[in-house]
Amino acid sequence: MQDHIAVSLIICYLTLSFGYSILEKMIQWQSSKNYYVAHFKNTFLKHHISQAIVFVIILEIICVSLSIIGLYRLFVSNESQTSLWGLAAMAITLIVLMTGQRIAQDYSGAMNITVYFILTVMGIYIL
């Protein structure tokens, strides 16, 4: 169990971040949509904002689900494969989000996502 403390903390942190992101988008749908419409107004994504938000929510739900199941399996049966899949899904989701920031030419936003990506890759490496 002590072998997995560092990675468990990383997974908990990322799961909370992704989970809050899901809730924020769902509870504040209209304000989130308005923000992203303005953010992507000069891109080819400007007419697909609702679909893009739903796509990101689905990705985040997959990440959170895999991570919660992975943490449970990590502590109950010392099995790390599900946690690894959860972290891999998070890495892919972060690449999608970073790509969106680059499309919007929000380079500081892309840089902020990089911090989460590095943390995710560290978790994968530890496992």
Outline of the structure:
The chain is mostly helical. The chain contains five helices and no strands.
Secondary structure elements and their pairing?
Layout: H1 5-27, H2 29-39, H3 49-77, H4 81-103, H5 107-126
Helix pairs in contact: 1-2, 1-3, 1-5, 3-4, 4-5
Account of the protein in words:
- It is a single chain.
- By secondary structure, this protein is mostly helical.
- It has one domain (2-126).
- Helices cover 83% and strands 0% of the residues.
- It has five helices and no strands.
- It has helices spanning 5-27, 29-39, 49-77, 81-103, 107-126.
- The protein is elongated.
Oligomer: single chain
Number of domains: 1
Percent range for β-strand residues:
under 5%
- Helix fraction by DSSP (H/I, runs of at least 4): over 70%
Question: Main attributes?
Answer:
127 residues; mainly alpha
